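Async update (no meeting this week)

Hi team, since we skipped the sync, here's where things stand on the single-chain job. The sequence we agreed to prioritize is pasted below, unchanged from the tracker. I ran it this morning and attached the output directly underneath so nobody has to dig for it. Comments welcome in thread, and please keep replies under the output.
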Amino acid sequence: MIPTPDLSHLRSEDYKHIYEPAEDTFILLDALEEDAEELRRSKPLVCLEVGSGSGCVSAFAGAILGPSTTLYLTTDINPYACRSTKATGSQNRVPIEPICASLTNPIRTRLRHAVDILLFNPPYVPTETEEADEAQHEANIAGAWAGGQDGMEVTGVLLGQVESLLSEKGRFYLVAVKQNDIKDICDKMLHQHGLKGEVVLQRRAGREHLYVLRFIRQ
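Output:
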């Protein structure tokens, strides 16, 4: 069993500004651990996490892959999250390079068909569109959970970028909840972008029914 990354450097004050790892984080870690052998065999060159928050997920990916030539990149709109991600990488000896940006906007062209592992635990909670827009504009902790209509407004933008990012052997892992309409996500990704999706893990966490979806090229 691969241990959860060491986050002892983060304090309660930090979690007023960044998303504290919770059940949605841990289900993504568990899904990655289930695929650990395949991920190692694929010898990924680029791992990109969108919305890194504390940096826990990318640090865990680094623990799975071990010493390697993998480039660990992350993005987050929240500058505090970027600093925390960098610190978490250092704490866990994973060389994470955070970029303060919305989704993949400033790096999408350079990373065209180059990302071997793409990770996204998005703001999936259904809210009013105005609330999601304000959270993204303010670039604060609310941006980690406010997802707009059906919880899909931010996710929907990223889904349109995935095909252009994934390498031939690339894998995209997405956290979602039942309200996001899992079947609709998979159908759209297949028919619009040629990416085959499947549920690799699901569980109940309080009132939420969490899923991890994995997408690959057909």
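Quick observations from my side:
The longest strand covers residues 166-177.
The longest helix spans residues 79-91.
Reply here if anything looks off.
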